Amino acid sequence: MQSYHRAGSGLFLAAALTAGCSRAVANHAAPDHAAARVAVLAADSAWAAAAAAGDLDASVSALAPDGIMFPPGGPPVMGRAAVRRHMQEALAIPGFSVTWQSDTVIVAASGDLAYALGRSRYTFPDSAGGVDTVHAKAVSIWRREPDGRWRAVVDIWNGAPALPPIRPTRGSE
Question: How far apart are CA 128 and CA 158, in angstroms?
Fold first, then answer.
């Protein structure tokens, strides 16, 4: 009889724990991917506007503290302090400008990571005293931070001809 009581208690405990876990899972809301997509596009647009306006502080704050940039033809720029120096140097070049637009954002199933595909345009002085324009394609990876704000954790771009919007046929929304 005593072993039945222990087994019954064990079964009761297991059932109670399972019920509690299933209630916790049921109460956990599924990620709102549409809202995340809108939030990432808004964060990306704000970052692009800050960069176009030459606002160094707002540009740097769009990047996570551990963020990394992969500029074309150079080594990775790792962390906010290094990114600040990199952006400050670029923005100080007379005639330099940057604009970009992300066309597609795809949010991970978890709802806390996303990537954006986009196009950009850079202008800067050329060696003959004119202005050179370079078009590029880009991928940025975004993470929802503990404060709920989306910040870029990886930003990479390279040269490309002027492109139409980048919209993958599979998996884009």
Answer: 23
The residue segments making up the domain with residue 136 are 32-159
The rounded distance, in Å, linking the Cα atoms of 93 and 72 is 17
Residue 170 pLDDT > 80: no
The answer on 42 and 113 residing in a single domain is: yes
Together in a domain, 97 and 25: no
Predicted pLDDT at 171: 53
* Residue 162 per-residue DSSP state: -
Does residue 2 form part of some domain?
yes
CATH number of the domain where residue 101 is located: 3.10.450.50
Whole-model pTM: value is 0.78
Across the range 30-53, mean pLDDT stands at: 95
For 77, the token pair is 């720029």
Q: What is the CB neighbour count within 10 angstroms for residue 22?
A: 10
For the chain, the domain total comes to 2
- For residue 91, what is the enclosing H or E element? helix 80-91
Give the model's pLDDT for residue 16.
41
Helix (H) and strand (E) counts in the chain: 4, 6
Give the three-state DSSP class for 97.
Answer: strand
